[in-house]
Specification:
The structure is a homotetramer.
Chain A (H helix, E strand, L loop, with lengths): L2 H21 L2 H5 L3 E6 L2 E7 L13 H16 L6 E10 L8 E12 L2 E9 L5 E11 L12
Antiparallel strand pairs in A: 1-2, 2-4, 3-6, 4-5, 5-6
Chain lengths: 152, 152, 152, 152
């Protein structure tokens, strides 16, 4: 296989892994998040802020912004098909988002070592303004987590 | 007014401020989060993890855990009635939660200075196991943010 | 061995592990940090801010505050004698410290699971005012790191 | 003044502000950190890890890595000459550094809004391997902090 074919295959493999995870990710889908781009170690998601996603200040709940970035992070760090979870994450809130805003979260791998990884996610709005910066640390599991419904 | 009456009034005032914010916080209510305790600089919320809150690994989405803690943080830092928003937050994921789990987030003020504050939130499950630790930095606004629906 | 003797022995064992680490920790000693308390999962350090620890604003360099907390963290998470390193850490700067101030960093274990741990460190000054809050995530090594001077 | 002259002047102005801050930053200079590049919102520092900067594991103390990044951050966020301090910072430790290693910290502005800013700093070693990632939140003061030696 040539180097080009290899890159194409890695891209297709990442897309399949992310699509499979997305198909069973009820929370991400219930919030209307859609995959715009998916590759090895990267993923871009987009969503529209719904009125029921706003907080008592009338702006998009910080938890919704976090979830958008966290989903992009999860897809990016699981793109090789090894079950990988978030160990920690931090978010900087830069600007408020409002109902009707279209938000895009772009996740990229900043580092990988052993079973750990660092991913950076930038959330922008429809005017290409930065809304939040997110950094997450991933941990690849040696064995997959139990599925919901199985005994704990 | 005696010191006891003053403490009672501060408690009642915090409860009123938090109840008012909760009444208009559509995201917190849409996720079934209920107020268990509310006081000056503190708030405890509880929720049941629903199946539509799980991710592709079949466990509670990290964004839902973050939102639970973030809501408790928001109520605690707005308990004096001054519009206050999150500047940043970090979460450490300790244990997975699953559909049906009952999660409790307890927020307490760790520091206040000028217009900034630091709040620590602990999320536990129904077995009193620690699920996540959250730390947020708040920023008190000089003017309240625009309401959703107003021109940006 | 009774439960009391066991607690006494665990305390003594932690103290020995921390003293051994401190003896070879040139950076901590070069900065004049002294052990005030050491136990299983906990450690308290104290130091005086020297003039050569100040930054261009004339206040204690944030890196010195971080190092004080990071050393207390390192001793606390190594108190059982298993080589353990920091994976990540975050610090909230609350108040400036100045040359001559006496700073105390108290580290406590907030969670342990598998080979990971979360430790919280509070830095206070001689007036018992909070100067910084630090949270670190530790990772226990399966094999100790190479010593300085060995081939990389 | 043409746009090119303006860029040149902004660059020279940033360099002067950073040089002035560096001249009085005793901690940064005591640790042998040198300015490699300085511009509007950016700064690159370099240092050699000394034996007295190592910890009990024989590797560079995390506090030294933090200080290197924190100094680059401080210079970058003060490059316009307005006294600006760190509100918070987080560091991800990626690889150990050892005595003799040459470390470079490159700071860049990721966002500015109101009196706040977010800066990202990458530390690499002489083999261009990533050693740590640092993200800091800055806060521009309305009045400069008191100098060391003045009454608190």
């Amino acid at each position: 296989m040539s180097s080009d074919e290899s890159a194409t295959e890695r891209q297709a493999s990442a897309r399949r892994a992310i699509d499979a995870l997305y198909a069973t990710d009820l929370a991400t889908r219930a919030n209307g998040m859609r995959i715009m781009e998916a590759g090895p170690g990267s993923c871009t998601l987009r969503m529209i802020v719904r009125p029921d996603m706003t907080n008592g200040h009338g702006t998009c709940h910080g938890g919704v912004l976090f979830m958008l970035a966290d989903s992009a992070f999860a897809f990016a760090c699981n793109s090789e098909g090894h079950p990988t979870v978030a160990a920690s994450a931090a978010i900087e809130f830069l600007a408020a988002a409002r109902a009707g805003d279209e938000l895009t979260a772009a996740a990229a791998e900043s580092w990988r070592g052993g079973r750990s990884g660092i991913y950076d996610i930038v959330i922008t709005n429809q005017r290409d303004e930065r809304v939040a910066l997110f950094r997450g640390r991933s941990h690849r599991l040696s064995t997959p987590p139990k599925k919901s419904g199985e005994p704990a």
